């Protein structure tokens, strides 16, 4: 049902994150353009600067193949400089929450980059007060919270939902997001907070998430709007939106559960290991299915650790056994 990591993050994204984070401490090297923004706190970036080029390339590549990508133009990129008292407070609060999440999940706060479409009017409110003051509109299909698109996912839906302003521009934030331990959220839910203390945020798909759900209870502390992109896209996007093709879920490598639990015992806290041992006993007693057991292992261990352990054991590509 859930995962403790963002399945779909990659080494490329980690490299991008490092490159972008290295620019957070140097806002004074950029020229501030107040007239081009809808509020204070934004510093305009320019072509040739590493963050500008990286963000523009990442954004356009997320639009997929032509013609949408070739008909979309990034007109401005801004960095949130967090220079006033409120901004500094937002950064400090984010840092505190990140440390808390690391303590909760064994050192992994699961911080990722994600896009969030906003209207022009929402920009200054979010910059000054955070998302609780002006939560971007969504259809509510995944509960009550802020929906964000992973940085390495398709941006078609995100672009479609971006409101067009009086100048024909659309706007998206690139945010740092503390995901912590995620759970899969089904469409149609009325959920407004994590289903239990075990979880912190939601995703729409475990293996290839196209949507992060940060609950209204967490959105101010767990989201930092670091960059703003203003762009012009074709007025009618319906022709560019294609149905998503759901990839077949990969089968789990063959591995006896006792061997897997023994390997995981080196990494998991005793409480999690005790839970997995209990689930394995229930599996052998046929009180739960093999699929349910696999899901519970993934909930507690997380896919990143699980894949690493399975590879280290040299498992064959078959289904797990009892």
TrEMBL record:
Subcellular localization, as worded in the UniProt entry: Nucleus
InterPro entries for the chain: Poly(ADP-ribose)pol_cat_dom, RCD1/SRO1-5, RST
Residue span of region Disordered: 1-21
A single GO molecular function term of this UniProt record: NAD+ poly-ADP-ribosyltransferase activity
Domain PARP catalytic span(s) in chain numbering: 28-252
Keyword terms, alphabetized: Developmental protein, Nucleus, Stress response
Any one of the GO CC terms: nucleus
Entry's transmembrane regions: none
Domain RST: 248-319
Composition-biased stretches (Low complexity): 1-12
Protein name stated in the entry: PARP
Annotated organism of origin: Rubroshorea leprosula
């Amino acid at each position: 049902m859930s995962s403790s990591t963002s399945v779909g993050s990659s080494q490329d994204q980690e490299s991008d994150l490092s490159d972008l984070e290295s620019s957070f401490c140097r806002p004074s090297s950029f020229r501030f353009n107040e007239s081009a923004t809808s509020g204070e706190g934004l510093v305009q970036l320019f072509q040739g600067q590493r963050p500008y080029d990286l963000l523009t390339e990442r954004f356009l590549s997320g639009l997929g193949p032509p013609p949408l990508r070739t008909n979309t133009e990034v007109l401005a990129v801004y960095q949130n400089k967090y220079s006033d008292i409120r901004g500094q407070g937002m950064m400090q609060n984010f840092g505190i929450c990140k440390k808390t999440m690391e303590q909760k999940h064994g050192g992994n706060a699961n911080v990722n980059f994600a896009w969030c479409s906003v209207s022009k009017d929402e920009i200054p409110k979010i910059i000054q007060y955070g998302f609780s003051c002006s939560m971007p509109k969504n259809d509510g299909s995944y509960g009550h919270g802020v929906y964000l698109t992973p940085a390495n996912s398709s941006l078609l839906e995100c672009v479609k939902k971006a409101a067009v302003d009086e100048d024909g521009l659309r706007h998206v934030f690139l945010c740092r997001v503390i995901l912590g331990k995620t759970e899969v959220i089904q469409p149609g839910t009325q959920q407004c907070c994590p289903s239990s203390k075990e979880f912190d945020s939601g995703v729409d798909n475990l293996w290839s998430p196209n949507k992060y759900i940060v609950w209204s209870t967490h959105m101010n502390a767990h989201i930092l709007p670091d960059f703003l992109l203003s762009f012009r896209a074709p007025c009618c996007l319906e022709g560019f939106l294609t149905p998503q093709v759901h990839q077949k879920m990969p089968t789990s490598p063959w591995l006896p559960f006792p061997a897997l639990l023994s390997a995981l015992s080196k990494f998991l806290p005793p409480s999690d290991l005790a839970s997995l041992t209990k689930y394995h006993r229930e599996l052998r007693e046929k009180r739960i299915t093999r699929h349910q057991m696999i899901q519970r292992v993934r909930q507690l261990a997380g896919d990143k650790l699980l894949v690493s352990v399975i590879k280290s054991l040299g498992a064959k590509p078959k289904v797990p056994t009892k």
